[in-house]
Design a protein that fits this description.
alpha/beta, 5-stranded parallel beta sheet, 6 helices, globular
């Protein structure tokens, strides 16, 4: 069975590769998307990537995803992580397993604790764009464990 995952890229992620490359690297959003899509094709995963600079759009997309056959959700909430309580509440309300990813560690960017991580089954940060691949691997392992547990019931 082919897995179907949604990746939401939060505020300012569309400017990846241009915005503070000394912190976030030089890989552009388009390059990251292409690398993730190629990797997902290789491992038989369908990946949809959604960018938004508006928290409400992220919330709307997550709610829609619950009826569209997605198996899991990964997100880099970016700027939403600091005060995204409505986003956190949405993540806690939906049945989709959620993995949060960040390119940097919060201490590097002077960030506060992430409020959205409270809803996450897993959290990956500090590995640059490799955080996405680690998050994807973690999500797939999580889904495999859930399927094994469900089959055993």
């Amino acid at each position: 069975m082919k897995r179907k995952l949604l990746l939401i890229q939060g505020a300012n992620m569309c400017y990846l590769g241009k915005r503070q490359p000394e912190i976030y690297g030089t890989t552009t959003a388009q390059e990251l998307d292409a690398a993730l899509q190629a990797h997902c094709r290789d491992i038989g995963v369908e990946l949809e990537i959604f960018y938004t600079n508006h928290e409400g759009e992220a919330i709307d997309r997550i709610y829609r995803a619950t009826g569209e056959g997605f198996d899991g959700l990964m997100m880099n909430p970016a700027g939403f992580q600091y005060c995204g309580f409505a986003l956190r509440d949405c993540l806690m309300a939906v049945p989709l397993p959620y993995v949060e990813v960040h390119i940097t560690k919060a201490s590097i960017t002077g960030g506060l604790n992430t409020v959205t991580a409270a809803a996450a089954k897993g959290y990956v940060c500090g590995f640059g764009i490799d955080s996405y691949f680690a998050g994807l691997d973690g999500m797939l392992r999580l889904l495999d464990r859930v399927n094994v547990a469900t089959a055993a019931s």
